[in-house]
């Protein structure tokens, strides 16, 4: 089976991201919005590593599909995360330790891009990342 997930991705288009950050309660929206994130996804056996670099921000996490793990998001909120796979899609659910504002992120991988939809409350943002490797 071909690995459609591993690779390097760079943001090319974003819609409704400001509204998403507002709903999330992110106080540094302008700084976050101006960043053009790059993601590097690598596989290590049954595990995956995702590293995101965006301007002054950096985050990374390692996980195994279907197993809950702890993560600190780029907004410094500690969450319990779970990533499940369905075909060429990963669905990640981030539940803050305080139980407030659950975020769901769906990453759909194609040959030349990754489409990411992130939802918090009733607000959904779509971001398209071009594969650059």
From TrEMBL:
Q: Which domain of life is it from?
A: Eukaryota
Give the residue range of the signal peptide. Answer: none
Give every Cytosolic fatty-acid binding proteins domain span: 7-24
Quote the Pfam families the UniProt record gives. Lipocalin
Which InterPro entries is this protein grouped with? Calycin (IPR012674), Fatty_acid-bd (IPR000463), ILBP (IPR031259), Lipocln_cytosolic_FA-bd_dom (IPR000566)
What would you give as a GO molecular function for this chain, any one?
Answer: lipid binding
Keywords (alphabetical) are: Transport
Record has Coiled coil as a keyword: no
Instruction: Indicate the family of this protein.
Output: Belongs to the calycin superfamily. Fatty-acid binding protein (FABP) family.
Which PANTHER family does the record associate with it? FATTY ACID BINDING PROTEIN (PTHR11955)
User: What name does UniProt use for this protein?
Assistant: Lipocalin / cytosolic fatty-acid binding domain-containing protein
Protein species of origin? Pochonia chlamydosporia 170
């Amino acid at each position: 089976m071909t690995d459609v997930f591993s690779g390097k991705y760079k943001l090319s288009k974003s819609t409704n991201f400001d509204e998403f950050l507002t709903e999330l309660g992110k106080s540094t929206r302008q700084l976050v919005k101006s960043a053009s994130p790059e993601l590097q996804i690598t596989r290590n056996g049954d595990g995956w590593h995702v590293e995101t670099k965006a301007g002054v921000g950096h985050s990374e996490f390692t996980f195994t599909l279907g197993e809950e793990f702890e993560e600190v998001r780029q907004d410094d909120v500690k969450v319990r995360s779970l990533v499940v796979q369905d075909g060429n899609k990963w669905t990640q659910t981030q539940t803050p330790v305080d139980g407030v504002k659950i975020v769901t992120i769906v990453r759909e991988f194609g040959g030349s891009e990754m489409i990411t939809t992130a939802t918090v409350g009733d607000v959904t943002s779509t971001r398209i990342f071009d594969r650059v490797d």
